[in-house]
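Subject: Sanity check before I submit

Could someone independently write out the structure tokens for this chain? I want to compare against mine line by line before I put it in a report. The sequence has 153 residues.
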Amino acid sequence: MEQEQINIEDIMQEIRAEIRAKGYADNEIPFSDIACLVGGTEVPFDLKDYLDDISMMDESRTVLAYRDISSTRKGVGKLITFVKKVIRKMVCFYVEPLVDDQNRFNELTTRVVAQTVRRYNDDDARIEELEKKIYKCERRIRELEEELKKNQA
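---
Independent answer below. Compare away.
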């Protein structure tokens, strides 16, 4: 089976000709001009902030189905509170399973993120260990190459 040679430069010339024929500007955008967005903003990774965010995530993972219902309005406040409590009782059959599902999801997500951090730390330590070994091996290779050169001379 004969392999066909692909000439990338010919393909690029055809593309450029098509761009000129269509009247498009032949401007290449430098990669450095393309912003890499993390979570919607250009923010460098910071391990301390990441760990702080995980801690806040852990603290706020539980969603409450019931919260204190009250009203500060004079006169009709008791009526407003009563109506809100009645509505809450009417929708609890629907809301409580949703809250339970959300809490289960939050628990699992928090656990997975925490495991990811532990794995990151383990990998980081292993990488550091391997880099030290590589450095020692490269140094030993240089020593052996120098010794070989001396012996050959």
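---
OP: Matches mine. For the report I'm noting this point. The chain has three helices and no strands.
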